[in-house]
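Chain X:
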Amino acid sequence: MPFGLLKYGLSRDYPAKHHFTPATELKKHYDVVIIGAGGHGTAIAYNLAKYHGITNVAVLEKSYLGGGNTARNTAVIRSNYLTEEGVEFYRESVKLYNNLSNEFNYNVMMENRGQLTLAHSDAAIRSFRWRAEVNQHMGVRSELVDRQTIAELVPNLNMSEDSRFPIMAGLWHADGATARHDAVAWGYAKGACERGVELHQLTEVEDIEVTQGRVTAVKTNRGRVECAAVVQAVAGASSVVAKKAGIRLPIHCYPLQAMVTQPYKPILTPHVSSPHVHVYVHQTSRGEFVIGGGSDPYPLYHTRATLDQRESLSAAALELFPFLSQARMLRQWAGTTDMTPDYSPIMGLSPVENYYLDAGWGTWGFKATPICGVTMAELVATKKVPDIIKPFELERFYNYEQINEAGATAASH
């Protein structure tokens, strides 16, 4: 191995293949144009190419691969939701995540660590009992646990009954996990490009042409391309892009901030969250403590970090883990969450023919990446809405059939 690496390093020719499509001119026509090269956009392209044989596909990204919310999330994977529709959907996504590295032959650094959500009130305990029953009924490993079990799961958690909000119980979700967010996008993009899909970075969609109720072309900063179908997967820019096609979405966008500390030796395995104090904490494989919380309280299309939120997150994290008082912050960042009224996504058909929506993910987007790629690709290829995403159609807001997942947030928004 050392000699092979030395030979590789001294070689004049770069022997490895390009992971992604080299920069090329846009073609005049594509069967499918996917707007957004994050986890969802690349997953849809990958599944179209591998499982449906549709390779005349262009993935357009205004910045760089995975540079939007995919690069800005905290990489938590879970399926302990509240509604049967939500639990079934995310359960299937977790199953796909467990085999994703084998699927790609590319390590996405999946770590099954479990998630513990803390209850600080009787009302929270009742809610957790309800969620646990729904989860177990749907085949998801969740259970209500007492203080003793919590202390055993997380020995360094502040269990004092004299704290401001004493911990009364918890919801233990054994299927909780994390993965490397960049690797997920890279794996999907690599597999898609190997099968003929074109990835076009620094290509911003400026307008969408609709003729007689049907999408016909996309105008970009690099030229116009005709297309037979368009899939929108742009997270925080969902309303802005949909408006170009004449579609109004029930979405408001809020900044969502997070931060990490300098690395420490491993002492925290589970992902720990508290909706009551608006914070969640987990330790990465590199030793950093990831700290996040609820969205900012006002709509804004911006990814700036603020001192106010840093102070709020720090104070909340210290209530749970006082030993972090000496930790130094390494970096802070924000993403843009596209929130719907019922905290569930908008997937499927749109009022414009052959224009497909993948939007409204709020804080759920990363964990839904694999199942979103499978179902949206199936929809585009077959023109039939898969049963598992049928409840998330845009029409539910007009039919008053919303799927309320507000109670399933890891840190209330």
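Chain Y:
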Amino acid sequence: MGLLRLVLGDQLSHDIAALEGIDPGRDVVLMAEVMGECTYVPHHKQKLVLVLSAMRHFAEELRARGIPVDYIRLDDPDNTGTLSGELARAVARHRPAGIVATFPGEWRVLEAMRGWEEVLGLPVDIREDVRFLCPLPRFRRWAQGRRQLRMEFFYREMRREAGLLMDPDGPVGGQWNYDAENRRRLEPGTMPPPPRRFPPDPVTQGVMDLVAARFPGNFGTLDAFAWPVTAAEAEAVLADFIAHRLSRFGDYQDAMAAGEPILFHALVSTSLNLGLLSPRACCEAAEAAFRAGRAPLNAVEGFIRQILGWREYVRGLYWLKMPDYARLNALEANRPLPWSWWGGETRMNCLKQVVRQTRDLAYAHHIQRLMVTGNFALLAGLDPAQVNEWYMAVYADAFEWVELPNTHGMAIHADGGIIASKPYAASGAYINRMSDYCRLCAYDVKAATGPEACPMNALYWDFIARHERRFSANPRMAMPLQTLRKMAPEKRDALRAQAAAFLAGPEMRPEA
């Protein structure tokens, strides 16, 4: 009697811990598509297709290696709709001596796993997820006793341990972080090379038909689906990025441009988060390009920082602070999500560009998420639970361990400063500096009041005024607070009235 080895939809790696030491003659791998995982948030249609297609491809790869796979499809007539229910049915079918699983990516799944031994009457071995570069016990040791858990200091330790971009006497180039060199606006006439994309094969097309039939009302379109769904395709995407876009990624990673959703970004986050790509392999490929003179240091360091630094950091923080972290609402925000975020009309071109792009591609790069939708949510005081659900629902790479800290902490400051030492609040001037969105907008980015004034401007000063007392002890907020306090009372009142009128207006109508 062998073991039942569970592989989840974001654990599609042949070296996943649950498969270590597998005996194909005695053990069975269980993979299950269940409605509960498809509906706990209203996922973008492309995210559903991506995960389900990648699961089906991975199951076939296991079978090709001689590994027995018990695969439950979403449309199987006896599907219970829950992971726990399918596990119980598999136990009844196979009578295993025990269950082996890999540590999951979401708190709610771990809570279910912790109850399986008692319910099923079998030992359940939940193994550490070795795909990450920083094991969770290692992160807890780093965090212990620290008053502030800043990513930059964690990142430096990870660089030393991994040996990436290191010389014998310290970091290559003499400094750890080149973020200041990564903020160029896209110059007119700059033509980003098209990314490597993959048209749906028969397996993916079958999943697309299933999703279109089962989830017709979900956000998003399937027309442009071209995500990698196998490790081979994911590796091709990485190679294409290294060859054609990495060299300019550093300069333009914060840039935004209408009609240019990808720019010089890597498009590897979906593959990393599903397990189709190794984070170390991504970092080593970028470092090799730098060592060979094919990419500059600011580009390679920025790319490695996002993976070795930020990605590992937010995972560690998520598991350190959950489940209470998800309930934090430090700024007491409670405004409903506006309908424009689900495709409703808005005159704000920046929001229009990002929401439409998200609808069509299930993708927006980090600055679009942080400084357009995230900044707007922060300034408008949108409810953190609704904002987090939206980010989880609409992006193909969103899994809670990575989405929640990025949104809750970095974008909307709902954690009160656990992640970011100040809120990432900005007026329309930031968006105008980093994009061409404002040039095509119905609003005037240079105006703060009046019928055509950019809403971001008044919302920014209303946000600062609303939280003046809260931010008074934060040295990084001293400059905007000083500017606010120097304002003539009539100007301050006019800005707050402008913000109030917008927040009460048609563009802020909640979802119907």
